[in-house]
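We were asked to recover a plausible sequence for a given structure. The inputs and outputs are reproduced exactly as logged, with field labels preserved.

PROBLEM: sequence recovery
POSITIONS: 540
GIVEN STRUCTURE:
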């Protein structure tokens, strides 16, 4: 790169050039409404374009994620009757690439006695359950039956499908695990090869515990052990997930990750997710400090948030992936504190982007690293590239086609940070913006949505922050903006912040800023999300 291009002037010029190009391009009108199944328009101003949302009604947790016969299944907590929580059933969508989703009819409806709460699905390859027919491997869903009354009984139940998840039969012998109590829910089941049995992790929510059970056939369960209270144990524990990962990519060193969500917790305000790392011997999970923590003598169960934003909850992982080396999960992109008040209609609730998950052990402790799945690259359309240059004081507006700035991916690399505060503002409009910045004095990466647009509650007007050390004054950001959400992946997913925002329709500007000093823009690429790729997302 030439010296000239490194200058601030060059950066300004590049942005101005982009503006001209954009002005020409903008002569074409904004994106045409996207037609979906039955002529439905999937183009409401706040409707996510590349995150899954149901066409209508309320959605929360992802459930029963499984890959089978070339399809990724996404089931989810769904109210078929309205835009607030209730009548919980399992909604259903499928995808062939983790990017484009097709919504299918409700898979498992509530019944008169029980709502259908969260749970998982296994591919019962050995037909241990006996639900299979000759030549067909059954999918078995394990979920919580929840009596609708407050404090009602919660027990674990089964349903099975032998037609690629299209239709489900509830097991006549339900429930299969009933402790006669409430607050016992969210079974995550997996096959534990060395022990040749199924293992279930479910929460005793009010006791801040994950209870483990074992079964040969999914129908008969025996108690194995309990984990907790530990970490953040100040709210109700929900939605456990337990899975092995190689440490620092080394298949010879494997540790188990236990993810637990906490409702009304201190992990993040409202509801948030934490993780523990340790060993699982088929019966007991024991948390373990990372090498760095052990040296420092700190507790094995320090609070480890997974996502420092407010809108990442109830993550669940895909079972039976074709690439056994991958671990992919997705979460509900909302927060129980205000989920019922978000200003979207006729739907309420979105999923995050699907993310590859990996585990690193570093001086500061364990890191659960999340990066958007590579399949999302198919969404990249026109690219605006800003050459390197220094940015100081002034705010720089990027040039994008009209309407494009609210569905983009941005990849930025900053270096030689001297500014006290620097970063990127998205969803910029009259008096509005969502600010993604790095505060050097505090050593924090943050997302400030206090002026992001419509604020469903006073608490929503918040600044979320993650501790982050700049190595050599450098910061790498991958930011996905989708009409009513912002996901920020810093330093290749070492730190993540996920936030909903509800900007006015015209608030689609993007700006760079640096305060109290300068920072070098090493590179900045902005990809408009391709209209055709998006449209395919809706070819339901
Ligand atoms: C988490 C949760 C789960 C429960 C489900 C009910 O968001 O509260 O514990 O199974 O939602 O919809």
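RECOVERED SEQUENCE:
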């Amino acid at each position: 790169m030439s010296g000239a291009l490194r200058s601030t002037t060059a950066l300004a010029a590049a942005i101005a050039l982009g503006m001209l190009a954009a002005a020409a391009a903008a002569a074409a009108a904004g994106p045409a409404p996207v037609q979906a199944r039955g002529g439905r328009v999937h183009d409401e101003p706040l409707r996510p374009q590349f995150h899954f949302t149901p066409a209508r009604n309320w959605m929360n947790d992802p459930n029963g994620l499984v890959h089978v016969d070339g399809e990724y299944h996404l089931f989810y907590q769904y109210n078929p009757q309205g835009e607030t929580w209730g009548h919980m059933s399992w909604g259903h969508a499928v995808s062939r690439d983790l990017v484009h989703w097709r919504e299918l009819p409700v898979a498992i409806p509530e019944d008169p006695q029980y709502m259908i709460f969260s749970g998982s699905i296994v591919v019962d390859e050995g037909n241990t359950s006996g639900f299979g027919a000759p030549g067909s491997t059954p999918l078995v869903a394990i979920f919580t039956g929840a009596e609708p009354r407050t404090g009602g009984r919660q027990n674990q139940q089964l349903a099975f499908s032998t037609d690629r998840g299209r239709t489900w039969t509830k097991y006549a012998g339900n429930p299969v695990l009933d402790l006669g109590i409430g607050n016992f829910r969210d079974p995550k089941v997996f096959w534990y090869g060395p022990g040749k049995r199924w293992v279930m992790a479910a929460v005793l929510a009010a006791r801040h515990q994950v209870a483990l059970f074992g079964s040969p056939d999914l129908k008969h369960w025996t108690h194995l052990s309990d984990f907790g209270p530990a970490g953040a144990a100040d709210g109700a524990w929900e939605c456990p997930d337990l899975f092995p990962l190689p440490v620092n990519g080394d298949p010879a060193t494997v540790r188990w990750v236990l993810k637990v969500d906490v409702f009304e917790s201190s992990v993040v305000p409202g509801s948030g997710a934490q993780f523990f790392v340790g060993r699982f011997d088929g019966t007991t999970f024991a948390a373990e400090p990372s090498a760095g923590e052990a040296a420092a003598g700190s507790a094995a169960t320090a609070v480890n948030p997974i996502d420092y934003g407010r809108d990442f909850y109830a993550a669940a992982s895909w079972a039976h992936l074709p690439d056994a080396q991958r671990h992919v999960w997705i979460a509900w992109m909302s927060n129980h504190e205000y989920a019922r008040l978000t200003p979207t209609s006729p739907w309420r609730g979105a999923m995050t982007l699907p993310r590859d998950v990996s585990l690193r052990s570093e001086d500061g402790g364990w890191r659960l690293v999340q990066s958007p799945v590579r399949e999302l690259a198919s969404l990249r359309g026109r690219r605006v590239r800003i050459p390197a240059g220094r940015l100081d004081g002034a705010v720089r507006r990027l040039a994008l086609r009209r309407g494009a700035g609210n569905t983009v991916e941005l990849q930025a690399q900053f270096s030689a940070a001297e500014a006290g505060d620097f970063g990127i503002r998205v969803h910029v409009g009259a008096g509005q913006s969502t600010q993604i910045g790095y505060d050097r004095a505090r050593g924090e990466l943050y997302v400030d949505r206090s002026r992001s647009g419509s604020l469903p509650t006073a608490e929503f007007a918040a600044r979320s922050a993650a501790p982050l050390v700049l190595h050599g004054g450098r910061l790498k950001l991958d930011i996905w903006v989708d009409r009513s959400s912002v996901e920020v992946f810093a330093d290749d997913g070492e730190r993540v912040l996920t936030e909903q925002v509800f900007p006015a329709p015209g608030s689609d500007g993007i700006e760079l800023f640096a305060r109290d000093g300068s920072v070098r823009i090493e590179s900045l690429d902005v990809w408009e999300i391709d209209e055709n790729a998006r449209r395919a997302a809706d070819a339901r």
